[in-house]
Specification:
By secondary structure, the chain is α/β, with parallel strands linked by helices. The chain has 10 helices and 7 strands. It has a 7-stranded mixed β-sheet with strand order 3-2-1-4-5-7-6, with helices on both faces. Helix 2 packs across helix 6 and helix 5 runs parallel beside helix 6. It starts with a helix and ends in a 6-residue tail after the last strand.
């Protein structure tokens, strides 16, 4: 009991869903992890050594089944991509797609993105960060679990290069208001583009699984691109 009282509680942006793992997803986790996976630990990653070249690095938080991530990586072989996701079947699915696509510019981390950013991603190392359809946590008492918070913006602003981009999308109008408010308060980012649409004008990204799910419910889609300030002290 005493232990429970002193243990620091962390508010996380996800709950680990048990989820069904197909045989092929499990096989991907067993066989393809050495090719695509990066184990979580608290030491800084060296992207140059990891990809064996110097290239722009794009990071996606919460890639779900990874189809959008693999499509983007396949379309930009000159860029390196890192995806972070806690949902194991999604990671397995993503590796299967990556193998089918025959790409070598993608690595995955299966851990809480906040801890990965804090401990493994070097300061000023990312060209772009994508956050597509983050868990909306629609109930008011759960709003504190939303990943977009002032502290999160400071963390990712430090990991992005000056002039780097933060691209966000959601299909929840109330989360869109929250994102508008939190970003407007930040002096680390400025909005360069904002779109509201019916799934027909995604901003520099393929459609995602959760976007299609939102559209089926009749939701509108919100897309933003923010510039990390200052833009020019590279
Ligand atoms: C609503 S889904 C969206 C998935 C995908 N981006 C899409 O649009 O289809 C949000 C995903 O973010 C993941 N997620 C939430 N918080 C996370 C965190 N802190 N670290 C890693 N993944 C996280 C969840 O596991 C979930 O798969």
């Amino acid at each position: 009991m005493a232990d429970r009282n002193i243990r620091k509680r962390t508010i996380r942006s996800f709950v680990r869903r048990a989820g069904r793992m197909t045989t092929s997803q499990q096989r991907a986790l067993d066989d393809l992890w050495p090719a695509f996976g990066i184990d979580y630990d608290e030491s800084l990653l060296d992207f140059r050594a990891l990809f064996d070249r110097r290239a722009d690095v794009v990071l996606e938080i919460g890639f779900g089944n990874g189809e959008t991530l693999v499509e983007q990586a396949a379309a930009a072989p000159e860029t390196d991509f890192i995806g972070i996701e806690v949902h194991e079947p999604g990671v397995g699915h993503c590796m299967l797609r990556a193998q089918e696509a025959g790409i070598s510019n993608l690595r995955l981390i299966m851990h809480d993105a906040i801890e990965v950013l804090r401990h493994q991603v070097p300061v000023g190392s990312l060209t772009r960060l994508n956050l597509y359809f983050p868990d909306p946590w629609p109930k008011k008492r759960h709003h504190k679990r939303r990943i977009v918070q002032p502290g999160f913006l400071d963390l990712i602003a430090d990991r992005l290069k000056p002039g780097g981009k933060l691209n966000v999308a959601t299909d929840w109008a109330n989360y869109a208001e929250h994102i508008d408010e939190i970003l407007a308060q930040s002096d680390r980012f400025t909005c360069v583009e904002r779109r509201e649409h019916d799934g027909n004008q995604p901003l520099d990204r393929p459609q995602t699984k959760f976007e299609r799910r939102g559209l089926r419910k009749g939701h509108r889609i919100f897309d933003w691109s923010f510039l990390r300030l200052p833009a020019d002290d590279l």
